[in-house]
Amino acid sequence: MWNEDRTNIIPNEATAQFVRSIFAWKPEGLSITQILDRLEAANAPIPETLQRVDGNMEGVHTVYRDQ
Questions:
Q1: Separation CA 11–CA 50 (nearest Å)
Q2: In the chain, what are the domain boundaries?
């Protein structure tokens, strides 16, 4: 999610811990499939799904709208 000025991304706390894990796992040598398996096992939320539930579809889709 972006701040009001659209100059900074505000971390989503529901997904931040999983993003940190991804960045820790990749240098350890895990493959994308292994990372996905771990995320699925941890019931990691899907950011787009969270945005739809919140009624907020701003973000990646919106960034390109004005360009």
A1: 13
A2: 15-63
Does the pLDDT at position 55 exceed 70? no
Which tens digits make up the pLDDT trace of 23-54? 999 999 999 999 999 999 999 987 777 666 66
Q: Distance between CA 61 and CA 67 in Å, rounded?
A: 11
Query: CA 31, CA 3: separation in Å to the nearest integer?
Result: 33
What residues contact 62, with CB distance under 8 A and at least 6 apart? 2
**Contact by Cβ (8 Å): 18, 39:** yes
* Cβ neighbours around 41 below 10 Å, total: 8
Q: Is 58 within 8 Å of 2 (Cβ atoms)? A: yes
